Amino acid sequence: MSSLISIGTSVVAKWPSTSNYYKARIIDYTDNNHYVCQFLDGSVIALPSKYVDLPEKFQRTTKRISLMRNEQIFLDHSLSFYSLIMSLGWIGIFLYVQHWFHYNPDIDNLNRPLSHAPYQQYPLIVIQYLLLWFLLQLIFARYFPHIGKEELIYLKESQPSIYYKHHSNSLFAFIITCLIMYIFREQIPLRELTKSYYLLALFNLGIVLILSLILLTNKLFSRYCSISFNEHDHKQKQTYFDFHLFISIRPGIILWLALNLLLLLTILKYNRQISIRFTISILLQTIYIINVFINETTMIRQSLDISPPSSFDALFTNLCWVPFMATFTSFYIGKSHRPVHTYILLSSIIFFSLGFLLQRLAIRQRLAFQALNNSNIDDSVMVNDSQRILTSGCWRWCRNPHLLAEILMVIGWTLPADIKCIAPWIYTFYIIGMTIYKAHYFDRTLRNTCTTGAYEHYIEHVKYTLIPFIY
User: Fold this and answer.
1) Residues 316 and 397 in one domain
2) Its GO biological process terms (predicted)?
3) What's the Cα-to-Cα distance from 277 to each of 291, 332, 348, 404, 427, rounded to whole Å?
4) Do 333 and 398 share a domain, yes or no?
5) Domain CATH for 54
6) Is residue 132 part of a domain?
7) Residue 277: exposed, middle, or buried by beta-carbon count in 10 A (0-12, 13-18, 19+)?
8) pTM score > 0.90 for this model?
9) N or C: which end of the chain has fewer CB within 10 A?
């Protein structure tokens, strides 16, 4: 035992089934000389000694990170043939849907042939406002203060000696952005930008391709290893702003709501009235995104486990797919004049409310369980020597109730678009696919940390992965 790191020492430990290292504390040893590490979120996991090291050793070498290259479940396949085909497929779907919406003057009459006489475009206006948009969001992300107690500090494999810090201030930036758009609504060319929705999507795709080429040619693709701190440790070295993480997250996620607000201001200015279903869809989307902003640090830390934010897939998803496919529902409703039954609008509110309440309940129950240091034996299952999994409350219905809640919320804001056209539902199908992938990813990670027979014992208590009694 003399060669082991002493109990109580702060270390950097590898999270199972990923290449990411987090700050933890050694609280015990197992019989086979494994470290029992307690992470800052309360998780207690037994790890082999090769996955635990002192912070100063982790900073001085990339060997520890590189050893995990072949063990990461979801690697950066940006240059692989399979990933290239998948990326081209997503781009094809994205361009087809945007093209169909732009050139179809009457989306209510689906049998009518597409019109190939485009209305006037405004490329110079689009370029000017896109550049202004990126500049404003860069300033907000760089200089606005961090909001919340939990901070995200991380390392890159390519630059292990530098600490990067993400400022979780998207909610603050979103509020200021909305105020600016409202105050200068008379100076902003609302109608021109709204009509240039398709052109905005194309220009954003061009920006993604250029940024990806720059990152690739400068060999800036890198896996991220996040280290979280509940309180800022002033003894650590200076933290830097990460431009790569910024461009793959901030402009796109806020652009989602900015496009909705742009359309809302345009309708109010020129039509003087808005439909009920448009209002419901916009409102539910806004509540959903604000909830994401509130949990921004946790969401980004989870995303670092899946794909490097500087990869093409991440840039395309966050700058093109998310803002323009999510807001496609709003623009579709704004352009469509087909009436929607009242029961569909009521179902929309019910689905979203159930999802929102389920997500809040699941998070609250999990936090309460972690506050007890996973010691509630009656409402949990032991999966390894030092870790228990909650099996009471909504966590007894399925193993991932928080993901089920996300599906319900997305269905809720999409229902006002009606179910007679598949185009507004493409983003919903995408979210459903991603939640299924995340559910299996979490199950696979848990299975790798369980002792023999423990995972089977757990699924006997909680049989369903995502949807109770179905899946």
Assistant:
1) no
2) cholesterol biosynthetic process
3) 21, 11, 9, 24, 18
4) no
5) 2.30.30.140
6) yes
7) buried
8) no
9) N
